[in-house]
């Protein structure tokens, strides 16, 4: 058993899942906004990175890890609300290219501002989870306390969001506003407020993601810390279908595993090539995403 | 009492409504008839706040509705069942109803039971996706979802659209009953003029955005000359 759990394929799967849940969180964050506003938030990673700087460097530099994390999440939610009210609201109903250009521009602005204020040197976050793999019968299991913390946190966040949407009145309103904005208004749903709340939730999820990414002992927090993760999360969201939160999870984890196998058995440098190849193929075969039902809205 | 005073609406250069004036009293059904493009749907959309008028005023009791957002107007007691019914197909029957009950500040349970008693078939299908309902059942769901908020005014846009004649007759009958038993102000937009005139108290006939007749329903039904205005398209 120990030999199996520490074997090369199982190690790749475990590492893949650890990476994949982070992609899944980024994908979920993108899906939350896409479903309500039909907008791709290219600045998602950068907004989350700023939230992490605000929590861990600007406001609570000497605080306990968890306190700083909560501050970061609150900051992330605020940044989301401000972005929606201050920037995105002016982009609704404009030609499709406008929001794309605006959000890419916003991404560059945020990364430059972060570099100007906090410099580009990497900062470690005081996570108390060891990045050293557990040992099984003298061989390393490809799972560390830190990886387990990442997986558990990601699942908790997804469970929270799923529960909120499925079981609460707010969730019902959020779903209604996304599916049928005009009918929702006729029933008294304040659709504009729901859009803002969508951004708040998405940016909150983003902040948790960025804290996880920056807590990694080997990378730390930099202004561009989220770039790579965002790229893979974006690909996962596009493959899984931007309308499907469940698809975001499945597609993120699958992408993480596939890419880990590529990295291990083929070449670590081919990972991004394979990811983009998968994206192109999936867009050709199922342009609406693998996990999106072929919905023909009849209502 | 809902009152519409010299209401004019334009979409760009296209004038959809021109100085429309009428009143709809509680406990009565006011039918709005007219051919395609006469401005019937625009009229309802303006009352519920989805469209802003160029000129004119709409009032309910003492309150002015014009200038308010739809989500505020529904809180003042105006329920609008849109054309095509606006049932959310991805939701279950019960989720649709819960959404309708959201503006009531009371537990949804008793409100839901009340609607299930009124429309038993909805109770049987409460956990089913709304997309699985038949046309008539969807219309019932749309009505129940509007009624669950206990409105004073019910705006119905083409409720008979796509329904079999038998189902339409039943539907018109229940609209009649609801209107009388709850002192509802009903504004009924219909292309199916015959069915609408059968249950309506008053009929307002629109032609190219203008009111060409506003009279008791029997009178309008009798008046041969008016038919050309509202029989423009279909009559079944």
Structural account:
- The complex is a heterodimer of chains A (299) and B (236).
- Chain A has a domain at 18-122 and 167-223.
- Chain A is 70% helix and 1% strand.
- Chain A contains 12 helices and 2 strands; from the N terminus they run αααααββααααααα.
- Chain B is an alpha/beta fold.
- Chain B has a domain at 2-85 and 151-230: P-loop containing nucleotide triphosphate hydrolases (Rossmann fold, 3-Layer(aba) Sandwich), CATH 3.40.50.300.
- The longest helix of chain B has 18 residues, at 165-182.
- At the A-B interface, helix 7 and helix 8 of A face helix 3 of B.
Q: Residue-averaged pLDDT of chain A, rounded?
A: 90
The count of β-strands of chain B is 10
Helix content of chain B: 25-40%
Residues in helices of chain A, as a percent range = over 70%
Count of individual beta strands of chain A:
2
Q: How many distinct helices of chain A?
A: 12
Order of helices and strands of chain A: HHHHHEEHHHHHHH
The averaged pLDDT of chain B comes out at 91
Helix count from the secondary structure assignment of chain B: 10
List the helices and strands of chain B in order.
EEEHEEHEHHHHEHEHEEHH
Q: What's the main sheet of chain B like?
A: 6 strands, mixed
Compute the CA-based radius of gyration of chain A.
19 Å
CATH topology of one domain in chain B: Rossmann fold
Which pair has the most extensive contact? A-B, 21 and 30 residues
From the N-terminal CA to the C-terminal CA of chain B, the straight-line distance is 32 Å
Low-confidence stretches of chain B: none
**Spatial arrangement of strands, main beta sheet of chain A:** 1-2
Ends distance of chain A: 54 Å
What percent of residues of chain B are in strands? 25-35%
In a nutshell, what does this entry contain?
With 299 residues, chain A is mainly alpha-helical. Chain A contains twelve helices and two strands, in the order H-H-H-H-H-E-E-H-H-H-H-H-H-H. Helices cover 37% and strands 26% of the residues of chain B.
């Amino acid at each position: 058993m120990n030999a199996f759990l520490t074997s090369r394929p199982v190690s790749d799967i475990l590492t893949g899942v650890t990476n994949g849940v982070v992609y899944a969180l980024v994908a979920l964050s993108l899906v939350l906004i896409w479903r309500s506003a039909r907008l791709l938030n290219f600045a998602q990673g950068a907004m989350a990175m700023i939230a992490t700087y605000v929590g861990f460097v600007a406001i609570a530099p000497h605080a306990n890890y968890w306190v700083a994390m909560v501050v970061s999440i609150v900051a992330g939610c605020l940044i989301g609300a401000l972005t929606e009210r201050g920037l995105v609201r002016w982009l609704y109903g404009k030609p499709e290219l406008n929001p794309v250009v605006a959000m890419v521009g916003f991404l560059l602005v945020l990364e430059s501002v972060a570099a100007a204020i906090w410099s580009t040197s990497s900062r470690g976050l005081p996570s108390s989870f060891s990045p050293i793999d557990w040992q099984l019968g003298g061989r390393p299991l490809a799972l560390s306390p830190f990886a387990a913390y990442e997986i558990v946190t990601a699942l908790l966040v997804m469970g929270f969001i799923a529960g909120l949407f499925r079981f609460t009145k707010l969730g019902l309103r959020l779903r209604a506003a996304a599916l049928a904005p005009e009918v929702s208004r006729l029933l008294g749903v304040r659709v504009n407020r729901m859009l803002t709340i969508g951004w708040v939730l998405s940016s909150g999820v983003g902040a948790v993601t960025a804290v996880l990414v920056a807590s990694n002992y080997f990378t730390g927090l930099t202004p561009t810390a989220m770039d790579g993760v965002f790229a893979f999360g974006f690909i996962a969201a596009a493959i899984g279908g931007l309308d499907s939160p469940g698809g975001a999870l499945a597609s993120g984890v699958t992408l993480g595993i596939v890419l880990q196998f590529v990295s291990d058995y083929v070449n670590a440098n081919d990972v991004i090539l394979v990811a983009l190849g998968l994206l192109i193929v999936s867009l050709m075969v199922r342009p609406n995403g693998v996990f999106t039902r072929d919905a023909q809205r009849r209502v | 009492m809902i009152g519409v005073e010299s209401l004019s609406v334009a979409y760009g250069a296209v004038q959809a409504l021109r100085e429309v004036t009428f009143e709809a009293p509680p406990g009565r059904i006011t039918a709005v008839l007219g051919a395609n493009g006469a401005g019937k749907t625009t009229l309802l959309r303006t009352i519920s706040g989805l469209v802003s008028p160029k000129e004119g005023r709409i009032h309910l009791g003492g309150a002015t509705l014009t200038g308010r957002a739809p989500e505020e107007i529904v809180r003042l007691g105006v329920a609008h069942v849109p054309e095509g019914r606006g049932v959310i197909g991805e939701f279950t029957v019960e989720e649709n109803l819960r959404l309708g009950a959201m503006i009531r500040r009371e537990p949804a349970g008793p409100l839901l039971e009340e609607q299930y008693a009124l429309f038993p078939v909805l109770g049987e299908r409460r956990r089913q996706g709304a997309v699985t309902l038949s046309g008539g059942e969807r219309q019932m769901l749309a009505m129940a979802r509007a009624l669950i908020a206990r409105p004073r005014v019910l705006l119905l846009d083409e409720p008979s659209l796509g329904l079999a004649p038998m189902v339409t007759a039943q539907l018109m009958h229940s609209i009649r009953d609801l209107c009388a038993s709850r002192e509802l102000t009903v504004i009924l937009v219909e292309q199916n003029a015959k069915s609408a005139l059968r249950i309506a108290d008053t009929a307002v006939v629109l032609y190219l955005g203008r009111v060409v007749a506003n009279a008791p329903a029997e009178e309008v039904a009798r008046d041969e000359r008016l038919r050309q205005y509202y029989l423009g398209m279909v009559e079944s």
